[in-house]
Design a protein that fits this description.
mainly alpha
């Protein structure tokens, strides 16, 4: 994955996080990555943290969080 692709995915992820008020800590919990990894993925130029695996885990973690929000809005229990 190129640096540009990684940055585009991170930008989209951060926009969604901001839209729904998701913190780095909550994303770390749901993506099974450390808070340090999540923080450095967004706030550092260190490409060691901007890997496809870390970004994919964060994207999946955010989807879990949004699934919970959707379930609450619909009055259904989360999975």
């Amino acid at each position: 994955m190129s640096d540009i692709q990684a940055q585009n995915r991170l930008t989209a992820l951060k926009q969604k996080m901001d839209e729904f008020g998701v913190s780095y800590q909550r994303l770390a919990d749901y993506s099974e990555r450390s808070l340090t990894t999540i923080s450095k993925m967004f706030g550092s130029n260190d490409t060691r943290y901007k890997t496809d695996g870390n970004i994919s885990a964060a994207e999946q973690g955010l989807e879990k969080i949004l699934d919970e929000y959707r379930a609450k809005l619909c009055g259904k229990p989360s999975l």
